[in-house]
Amino acid sequence: MNNKPKSTGSKMPLYTHENNEEGSHSRRMTDEEWQAIVENEASYDGTFYYAVKTTGIFCRPSCKSRAPKKENVLLFRNANEALSEGVRPCKRCKPNGLRLPDEDWTRQIIHVIDMNYHEPFTLMRLADMCHGSPYHLHCTFKKMTGYTPKQYQKLQNQKDHREA
Ligand SMILES: [Zn+2]
User: Fold this and answer.
1) What global pTM score does this model have?
2) Among 28, 32, 95, 129, which lies 20 to 30 A Cα-Cα from 162?
3) Range of the domain at 84
4) How many domains does the chain have?
């Protein structure tokens, strides 16, 4: 089996911005803010929000999620700014104060798989990226789509091969 990830040059990442684009809502991150994200500092909640480009999900600084790669982080002053950039609220820390409906969460999961299915893939890792428990993620995804996350990932890979 040769499962070398091939480059996905044709796939446009949804949430990246052109370098140095003025007028974009996201702004440069200070070391202090980065530290707050890494250490899940609750005292920074409300002062800024951050999204991760590879998942399109945004969080409060205190969110107990694994620290993202620094270069993938986008910063926002408030939840509305983040929403207007097209990123989705995290299920776990509810940065816009609202519970995330299963439907939206499922869309998020699909999006994360679509952007990352070439990489080694486990339910654990997916749950980590989508900010929920593996069990809950599996159940919700199956209920909403009829597929398990693994089956869906397989389908995406097969589609690729057909198009190649
Ligand atoms: Zn979060």
Assistant:
1) 0.75
2) 129
3) 31-89
4) 2
